[in-house]
Design goal:
single chain; 173 residues; alpha/beta; DHBP synthase; five-stranded mixed β-sheet; 26% helix; globular; double-stranded RNA binding; ATP binding; TC-AMP_synthase_SUA5
Amino acid sequence: MLPTVFAYPTEAVYGLGCNPLDEQAVLEILRLKQRPVEKGLILVAADMTALKKFADVFNPQWSDKLQQAWSDTQRAVTWVVPKTLSCPNWISGQHQSVAVRVSHHPLVKTLAQAMPDGVLVSTSANPAAFVPARSETEVIAYFGADLPCISGELGGLTQPSEIWDAQTLARLR
């Protein structure tokens, strides 16, 4: 069984994760990051179907674009899409949209699949204004040894995921 809040390696940096429907866990991640709830968080899954509870990923206007980007194993792409009524505000923040990604990283996929809905919060493991952690040592330096950190390798990318708006096709990061 996974801890309520934990750090873990992603494609390029360590992330902080939890069950997105556990409001207290999400609020703890926001406290650790010193991040306001209004900004929203990224959700990650092992497959597109798991995201449909939280996001309008199967909209014919953009679902092909999402699938194409997520099939490229050399990139990590996050898409901002309209949220569903099931997506809590502590995930979407002040937005009517939510950021979502399908990961190719084996450990991230396993962690997402271990969540009740197959979806995991994925936000970089760093306090606001600091660079994201790229090792367990850096996670501990930021948050202390009491934060559970799942061991594993980063996915080989040098930059955190690209972020695109599915409706406008604007690159946000």
